[in-house]
Automatic annotation (TrEMBL), chains A, B, C:
Domain S-adenosyl-l-methionine hydroxide adenosyltransferase C-terminal positions: 175-256
Family to which this protein belongs: Belongs to the SAM hydrolase / SAM-dependent halogenase family.
InterPro entries: SAM_HAT_C, SAM_HAT_N, SAM_OH_AdoTrfase, SAM_OH_AdoTrfase_C_sf, SAM_OH_AdoTrfase_N_sf
Keywords, sorted A to Z: S-adenosyl-L-methionine
The keyword Transmembrane helix belongs to this UniProt entry's keyword annotation: no
Signal peptide as annotated in the record: none
Protein name from the UniProt record: SAM-dependent chlorinase/fluorinase
Domain S-adenosyl-l-methionine hydroxide adenosyltransferase N-terminal: 4-148
Organism of provenance: Candidatus Auribacter fodinae
Amino acid sequence: MKIITLTTDFGSENWFVGTMKGVIAKIAPQARVIDLNHGVSHFDVAEAAFSLVSSYNYFPHDTIHVVVVDPGVGTARRPVIACGDRFCFIAPDNGVLSFVAGREKHMRWFHADRPEYFLPHLSDTFHGRDIFAPLAAHLARGTDPVKMGSLITDPAMLEGAEFEETRSVSGAIKGRIMYIDCFGNLITNISSSAVDNRIEVEVSPLRPTVAGILPSYDSVPVGEAVVVCGSSGFLEVAVNQGSAQKEFNCKKGDEIFVYVTASKKG
Amino acid sequence: MKIITLTTDFGSENWFVGTMKGVIAKIAPQARVIDLNHGVSHFDVAEAAFSLVSSYNYFPHDTIHVVVVDPGVGTARRPVIACGDRFCFIAPDNGVLSFVAGREKHMRWFHADRPEYFLPHLSDTFHGRDIFAPLAAHLARGTDPVKMGSLITDPAMLEGAEFEETRSVSGAIKGRIMYIDCFGNLITNISSSAVDNRIEVEVSPLRPTVAGILPSYDSVPVGEAVVVCGSSGFLEVAVNQGSAQKEFNCKKGDEIFVYVTASKKG
Amino acid sequence: MKIITLTTDFGSENWFVGTMKGVIAKIAPQARVIDLNHGVSHFDVAEAAFSLVSSYNYFPHDTIHVVVVDPGVGTARRPVIACGDRFCFIAPDNGVLSFVAGREKHMRWFHADRPEYFLPHLSDTFHGRDIFAPLAAHLARGTDPVKMGSLITDPAMLEGAEFEETRSVSGAIKGRIMYIDCFGNLITNISSSAVDNRIEVEVSPLRPTVAGILPSYDSVPVGEAVVVCGSSGFLEVAVNQGSAQKEFNCKKGDEIFVYVTASKKG
């Protein structure tokens, strides 16, 4: 039976996620549910999108990834099912699937508009339980997504700063802090591959500047800053056994500049 | 094999819940354990009771719901097993099952007083591991609860403010804030059905007042307050994409008054 | 199929633990993963060691316990597999298995140095996903640990204050606060068995002093301090329905003295 993962901004201090699992167990008793991340910042669609793209690919093919970060719960925003060659995704149609949409092939998108695949009684405030969990369970049972909704070609995608591509700006690569993890590491949207041949970098406007991409956190002494190729494929600014967030007093969304000060073959 | 849910005030920052799962896996390897809520405020029996009643009914029949919020751990308070037509419940006999007891039919109550269904060595401080987890596991294996304890007719029930019914007070319905969720939404004990035909309400003493029950959080602009029919069947005061708790500076237990200012057919 | 438990300092607010479960599900679909504790203080190897020794023994034999608290991630520190008569353990070789090593018999230690049991692409910063999860999954599938690494005889062990044994100091037993749980209970490293025949004790330097080991938290009135035999087999200082941490304003690592003021037969 299939795996269903759950990514939400519900936290782990209440009965919301547990109740979704009850609903799934009732419809698809054999489905296996894995908590992927319930610590997304409230209503932060871009953070949820980044969390998903950093993790979804490590699951077995045919996994159903459910994301419920849904500032528009109860409005007319559509619930969508997106199925590609390897995975299916279920989420509100608010752009939270933007990053995976750019990576997965042959995605077909459906507006899940058939109430027979929801719970019989819909609340206005908890569609994770009433809509998204039942959709995932029916999909896990093998229901064809074609039966569960209408094909659409205009899924919502993130735009603007939230989804900004990194850009070259007078010799520098300009990016953003996409996520700050529980260790205080600053995870950027600058692909590690973009800097493969640049052995010296400066990350600005962080002061003091951090020079060089090094192999691991403790390539520098305890308490010092370092730039590493992070585990999700993006540059990451860290402090060895410390918190880069505290050290540099920065926050999610802040701009980051990487300057090439020397190339490998320079 | 049956599902066992766990509701505790243990939090998710230690080995307590994980250890209970180890105990269950040892006795009932096929049982499936689902975390329902480990974020109940410490020792808050009424909050645990409210969490349970808001969620238990979404699970498959025959689910065993275990609640370990137990200020009296190590004292003579009884461990109880309560089995109704659809679910079984296991908890300390401190009133935490009051709300579900009012909803489930044909509940038989047992004082679980047979040490052969506990762990061989009992600590004085961790009955979740030593008593409640083993009881749940034996029940999941199919042991008849009649064998596991003595029938009782006097289970403890919550009384007073904690379990106060809503009341009509000079045209208003008086209730209480039962729970504040992670979004800062204020969940009351006023049943949504009690106000079905009252299309304009004022919630007091919240200032500024909130007028009208609306279909969803974003029936009002971002940052404004709204009253909705919450997902557990109770009125809920929210701020669209904000925190009603911060906006109104209120806390769990505070009184809430709903005034009927106009009726649907008025 | 076997059980794999996970103990980490990753917290529950991100996708790190979920991703490890994806990796395990891909390699060993039948393995059952149980979260043992993800709230270990960041980089705190001694706390993780204490958490593990307090819980591992409650799981079925053949359980695979994985610990990823790894300040040296990305360095040359070895990943180790340790198999005893009853359990296997997988962890970075940093002493985190010190406490269980002292209790389990016939432990064989392996340096897991065969990359074919890792993920194909190794990051420098997330060995929980790239090394430890795959090792656990292969072990759960039944791979012989002999094939997965080279036998070693010098696993790292904690030393000094972190692993200090309790000591008799002029009539007192000197120990340390090893852990403060979510209720504010102070869990020491003084074995309950060491004080079995001492019916009156003083715990110092806590002021006011706490006298006597009592059966349960509420052997004293609400709000008062009490010493109990904790559930992990160690003395524990608590405040009935309150927080000993706040009451005594102390922190992990603080020294504790237990004075024998009268013996049972004195």
